[in-house]
TrEMBL record:
It holds the Pfam family PapZ_C. PANTHER family: RNASE ADAPTER PROTEIN RAPZ. InterPro entries: RapZ-like, RapZ_C. This is Putative P-loop ATPase protein. It comes from Streptomyces sparsogenes DSM 40356. One of its GO terms (molecular function) is ATP binding. The lineage of its organism: Bacteria, Bacillati, Actinomycetota, Actinomycetes, Kitasatosporales. Residues 3-119 form the RapZ C-terminal domain.
Length: 128
């Protein structure tokens, strides 16, 4: 059976992990970090998840990524598929999208391993 390994990460602390599919959320999707009320929260907080999932384009990206992973899994040698989801700080967008992607893939019968490489790292202080 195909195993999908999903890792959320940040581009600010370390290089991206190797993966078959990399989602770079840095430039095209609203960053909750710019909202001072959300800045020190993480994807474990409902307000962050609502903010990320309410961003235009995120849900279509999730649907497209599910289809892409399913295409990889249908291939003749698809025993492991690595998906990396990155943003600037690894606490908001990447972790939320990785979690939602894992849930959607599990509902479609795929075995999924999920980890958040940088969720617990300190907030990267930067201009809003």
């Amino acid at each position: 059976m195909t195993t999908v390994e999903i890792v959320s990460f940040d581009y600010g602390h370390a290089a991206p992990p190797e993966a078959h599919v990399i989602l770079d959320l840095r430039q095209h999707f609203r960053d909750p970090h710019v909202n001072p009320a959300l800045r020190y929260m993480t994807a474990e907080d409902g307000a962050v998840r609502r903010s990320v999932l309410g961003t235009a384009g995120i849900r279509p990206l999730l649907r497209a990524t599910v289809r892409q992973v399913q295409a990889f899994a249908a291939g003749p040698s698809g025993d492991r598929i690595a998906v990396a989801v990155g943003c600037v700080g690894g606490r908001h967008r990447s972790a939320t999208v990785a979690h939602c992607l894992a849930r959607r893939l599990r509902r479609r019968g795929l075995e999924v391993e999920l980890w958040h490489r940088d969720l617990a790292r300190p907030v990267l202080e930067r201009a809003a």
